[in-house]
Amino acid sequence: AQTVTQSQPEMSVQEAETVTLSCTYDTSENNYYLFWYKQPPSRQMILVIRQEAYKQQNATENRFSVNFQKAAKSFSLKISDSQLGDTAMYFCAFMNYGGSQGNLIFGKGTKLSVKP
Amino acid sequence: DVKVTQSSRYLVKRTGEKVFLECVQDMDHENMFWYRQDPGLGLRLIYFSYDVKMKEKGDIPEGYSVSREKKERFSLILESASTNQTSMYLCASSPPAAYQETQYFGPGTRLLVL
């Protein structure tokens, strides 16, 4: 069974600095997707960024980028120029390619606090 | 924009009551999901549905049932609520996995069972 591990329950960063959130996963599959979801204090979960395992190039969305290391089964999220609005729970998630109607497997989350 | 709505943001129920949590999406998505979110445990899948009247058990289906009579609506039912079902419940929807993989979430329902 696939598992997703986020080893940092809580992190903090100063505004405008860079922070990296860690995520590792375990799977025997070769094709899959990886996601980072953000849940601000208002609780609406939104997608931050996603990565297809067959793509070698790391995904980037504005200030958010990932470091995808397929061999190491590692998928970290880097937030550059942190803003107060980045304060949220961040969840790493895994999905098998084309399987199980798109079931996501989530990590336990990292609570990020951005301090002014 | 995809919109997923949940019938209540906060709900307080008594032990033994039958509880209905409703979820509606407006993007004609085939897949719908119910998750439970607890501190330190992340999100755990309760049930999902990939079509009208179809349902599949997730990781923690015990004590829950679901109903999907219409494509846009997916209901989670607690037949006899218990205190250990106090939690945040999140609904999500997505198109078929073959075409799009992103799940879109509702705002959540925080349920307190007394």
Overview of this protein structure:
The complex is a heterodimer of chains A (116) and B (114). With 116 residues, chain A is mainly beta. Helix content of chain A is 0%, strand content 52%. Chain A is built from no helices and 12 strands. In chain A, the strands form 3 sheets. In chain A, strands 2, 5, 6, 10, 11 and 12 form a 6-stranded mixed sheet that branches. Chain A starts with a strand and ends with a strand. The mean pLDDT of chain A is 92. Chain B is 0% helix and 52% strand. With 114 residues, chain B is mainly beta. In chain B, the strands form 2 sheets. In chain B, strands 2, 4, 5, 6, 9, 10 and 11 form a 7-stranded mixed sheet that branches. The model of chain B has no long low-confidence stretch (mean pLDDT 92). Chain B has strands spanning 4-6, 10-13, 19-25, 31-38, 42-49, 56-57, 65-70, 73-78, 87-94, 104-105, 109-113. Chain B is built from no helices and 11 strands. The termini of chain B are far apart. The interface between A and B is medium-sized, with 24 and 28 residues.
